[in-house]
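Course assignment 3, question 2. Fill in each field.
Student: A.L.
Task: Predict the tertiary structure for the chain below.
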Amino acid sequence: MGLEGYRDIKGKIIFKGQEISKLGIDERARMGMTFGWQEPARYEGLKINDFLLASKTKKDEKFSIDALEQVGLNEKQYLHRAVDKTLSGGERKKVELASILTMDPDFIMLDEPDSGIDVATLELMFQVIKDLKQKGKTIVFITHSLAVLKQAEHAFLMCNGEIIQKSTSDKIIPYFENKCIPCPHKNEPDEEVSFDGR
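Answer field:
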């Protein structure tokens, strides 16, 4: 997404035919890219309605209400609440997903989308993701979850920052089920560390 400190990469990032490696997060967002955090941010004092309206160029409260309904939040209970610590992790995930719906981006990255949410919320999230895919949106998951992987069509198996296999998701699923693949990373510390802190 162009966050500071994460721009030193190999190769190029091409989006909609344009090289975007040097663009900042705001420029990428205007092109139709967005990111869903593993731990959604809190905004003390900012109401959910204002947060959602800030995501959409057309400032119409109906967009906020529709988005909240899609993610299973009642407008009367949530529209005028603050995006702060009074919301549970699951509620913040839903609010973040509602903000993505109001943005209507073409490309969405979701980091550990199932983190901190219950099974019912996860199923609702998967339905929203299916709806977005049917609208032609591209969604990239960063996940350690078999349930999330099953929502994907294609998958890249990574170890220590390197892609070690790419295939359809059904061919990667076995590696989430206690199967392993040869990996160049030793998965061991460089030096022996004792458990007594020495």
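Instructor remarks: The first strand starts at residue 14 and ends at 15. The chain has a mean pLDDT of 83.
Grade: pending
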